[in-house]
Amino acid sequence: MRIIVGITGGIAAYKAPELVRLLKKAGHEVRCAATDHALQFVTRPTLETVSGHPLYCDLFASGGTEHISLKDWGELLVVAPATANIIGKVASGIADDALSTLLLAFSGKPVVMAPAMNSDMWAHPAVQRNIQTLEGWGIRMVGPETGELACGTSGTGRMSEPEDIAEAICNFEFRISNSEKENGDAASSSEFKVQNPKLAGRKWIVTAGPTYERIDSVRFIGNYSSGKMGFALAEALAEAGAEVELVAGPTALQASHPRIHLTRVESAREMYAAATELFPQCNGAILSAAVADYRPGVCADHKLKKQGDEGMTLTLVQNPDILATLGSMKQPGQTLVGFALETDNELANAEGKLQRKNLDYIVLNSLRDQGAGFGVDTNKVTILSRGGSRRDCPLMSKREVAREIVATVTQ
Ligand code: C5P
Fold it and tell me: What CATH number is attached to the domain comprising 274?
């Protein structure tokens, strides 16, 4: 591939020449573009020597159109490190130097970014919003990692290691068909996905969203689940190569990937019927739906009228537990993943549920964490395995959390 490595002004810029070297070693042709601030951390001769090409950092050096010729040349643009500044500029459509102008010109072609910044900057709502905007446009993020930061503290914001960025790039399968490539029309698609050999051709079920339990012909008992986490999981599985049966309770969300087959249901019993019918043909299931534990014992076929001045008693009966049922149906080779939303004794309760319901993994999210839970676009989870392993993920977009869960449960 012809890859442009864009470098911005973070301390991690000192690792960029190593990334260029690794990409070249993997057989790619590489050119570099840098911001003025990046050149405070890494020098022009270094980048020109490792890439073997002149550095692009001055918008007007060769008449002011080099961003277009470089855009035509490149098949992939990797920004490493990507500062909060460049992320914000691209999200806002600002093109005020060589690299930001190139990034806008690269519209419609694949872009990967490796964010690097202080953990408080990474957590800032503006940065998180910008990351979501870029991800929504198909820009792929690698990292950031949690660990030691240049400012002397530790937290989330450390740039992924050059080896990991190079490996992630090698794992991206660009959705460019050979005929498009032969026709020289490779620039027509920006979509690409991470290949996962353990998912290609496999079938997985995902449950998503709330359930509505009818009280009468116009009322129901429901909950605040938006379905965003489940839809993101279905997308992540499909992007990685799986065929996905997405069984969703009432939500306005749409599934866009061609490998997702969506079944819409309303109640826990309908979700139970769909999931138990599909599970025997599937390699795995991730049950992220917020299923109502109880439903009204009777559902009136007309609108219930207010009667007298007294209150009203609604008798509830238990719904079937879909996750526990799939746990009892599970055959060797099938993977079952549940979610747990706990408010106290989180770890102990989640571990208990993992054993009791015969799960392979449980994803714990706590409502105590800001930015995690219902309706929001971010989530903070801990993934526990039956074998006793535990992965604490930092606050990330639900898309990123979904990729992390998929990668962990298919190891
Ligand atoms: O036991 P608890 O309801 O907290 O378990 C949550 C997990 O169980 C989630 O994965 C949820 O999708 C699943 N669940 C289910 N059927 C139910 C209730 C919960 O599949 N009736």
Answer: 3.40.50.10300
Domain limit, last residue, from 164, 194, 224: 194
Model-level pTM?
0.62
> How many Å from the N-terminal Cα to the C-terminal Cα in the chain?
28
Domain that includes residue 95, residue range: 2-194
What CA–CA distance (Å, rounded) separates 326 from 403? 23
d(CA 158, CA 117): 7
DSSP alpha helices (H): ranges in 124-161? 125-136
**Given the CA of residue 320, which atom of ligand 1 is nearest to it?**
21
Q: Is 322 in the pocket of ligand 1 (CB under 6 A)?
A: yes
260-281: average pLDDT: 97
| CA 322–ligand 1 middle distance (angstroms) | 7
Name the pLDDT band for 360 (thresholds 50, 70, 90).
very high
Q: Is there an atom of ligand 1 within 6 Å of 353 CB?
A: yes
Is residue 295 lining ligand 1, measured as CB closer than 6 Å? no
Average pLDDT in the 398-407 region? Answer: 91
Ligand 1 binding pocket includes 268 (Cβ within 6 Å): yes
Three-state DSSP at 317 gives: strand
**Three-state DSSP class for 205?**
strand
Residues 25 and 145 in one domain: yes
Separation CA 380–CA 401 (nearest Å): 8
- Number of domains within the chain: 2
> DSSP of 43-110, one letter per residue?
-HHHHHHHHSS--B--TTTTTT-HHHHHHHH-SEEEEEEE-HHHHHHHHHT---SHHHHHHHHTTTS-
* Residue nearest to ligand 1 atom 21, measured at CA: 321
Q: How far is the CA of 385 from the centre of ligand 1 (A)?
A: 17
pLDDT in tens, 145-185: 888 888 788 888 999 999 999 988 877 654 333 333 434 44
* Residues labelled as active-site residues: 151
Lowest mean pLDDT among 64-68, 76-80, 236-240, 241-245: 64-68
Looking at the fold, whether 209 and 177 belong to one and the same domain comes out as: no
| Cα 292 to ligand 1 centroid, rounded to whole Å | 8
Q: What pLDDT digit, counting tens, does each position of 249-262 carry?
A: 999 999 878 789 99
